[in-house]
């Protein structure tokens, strides 16, 4: 059974949603879905029920029913004294696909970080996957199988793209991945519903570093991130070598900018579970 995608179309930059989807905001200690309207609610409810029935019939052992609408999380608690440094590990056509200088810096200084790995990237970097999973101050999420444009695919295809690296981590590395970030930051209602039914947490960002852009200097990237960094921020970088300035930016960010803002690096999970200041 195939389900068409409403308003599906490619987009030109990361982090844009397609159609009406649900974004989470942190209010009074909880995440709440924003957006309202009875027609939108009925449409999402119908879509969730339809997709759940179809996908459960296809692979019942892989789904964990989740009550409610999936949240697209872009930040953590605004009173938490930390930010999440996140790094996408997408497949690359040229180069090693692994930013060794960046990783050496993060490991040497034991800087907490979250990595979103694509299945295609993992297939070519087994030793690196083992290493990252073995370090307690890192956490690993998934980033699609082949880094596809999800809104251009139907529900079955989106499920396969999302589930591929989750299964790989579970079966080959005995690791249960609970965090998901869509390739290119693109998603639609179907993506949100599938992620919800898989029991994953949908993680985006509220600060885009722009580190893959070859026209940006380290100073420009750092200035952009520094101006926006605040308690609860989730920042997206790349650790696959596409960000030529990323190592330098991370060094200055973690040794100067964040300490001056009294912010500490955290994994996404720790950030989302952070106890706000004054609530210890």
Layout of helices and strands, plus pairs?
Elements: E1 23-27, E2 30-33, H1 38-58, E3 72-73, E4 82-89, H2 100-108, E5 113-117, H3 119-123, H4 126-133, E6 138-142, H5 155-173, E7 179-180, H6 189-197, E8 201-203, E9 207-208, H7 218-228, E10 234-238, H8 246-260, E11 264-266, H9 268-272
Parallel strand pairs: 1-3, 3-8, 4-5, 4-10, 4-11, 5-6, 7-8, 9-10
Antiparallel strand pairs: 1-2
Helix pairs in contact: 1-6, 2-8, 5-6, 7-8
Task: Provide structural commentary.
The termini are far apart. The protein is globular and about 45 Å long. Helix 1 (38-58) crosses helix 6 (189-197) and helix 2 packs parallel to helix 8 (246-260). It has helices spanning 38-58, 100-108, 119-123, 126-133, 155-173, 189-197, 218-228, 246-260, 268-272, and strands spanning 23-27, 30-33, 72-73, 82-89, 113-117, 138-142, 179-180, 201-203, 207-208, 234-238, 264-266. With 280 residues, the chain is an alpha/beta fold. Strands 4, 5, 6, 9, 10 and 11 form a six-stranded parallel sheet that branches. A five-stranded mixed sheet has the order 2-1-3-8-7, with helices on one face. The chain is built from nine helices and eleven strands. It has one domain: Alpha-Beta Barrel (TIM Barrel), CATH 3.20.20.
N to C succession of SSEs: EEHEEHEHHEHEHEEHEHEH
Low-confidence stretches: 1-13, 18-42, 59-69
Number of strands: 11
Radius of gyration: 18 Å
- Helicity level: 25-40%
So how many helices? 9
- Quickly give the structural class: alpha/beta
What's the average pLDDT? Answer: 83
Report the CATH superfamily: Glycoside hydrolase/deacetylase
Strand content: 15-25%
Terminal Cα span: 50 Å
CATH topology label = TIM Barrel
The quaternary structure here is single chain
What characterizes the major β-sheet?
A: 6 strands, parallel
| Coarse morphology | globular
**Main CATH class:** Alpha Beta
Count the domains.
1
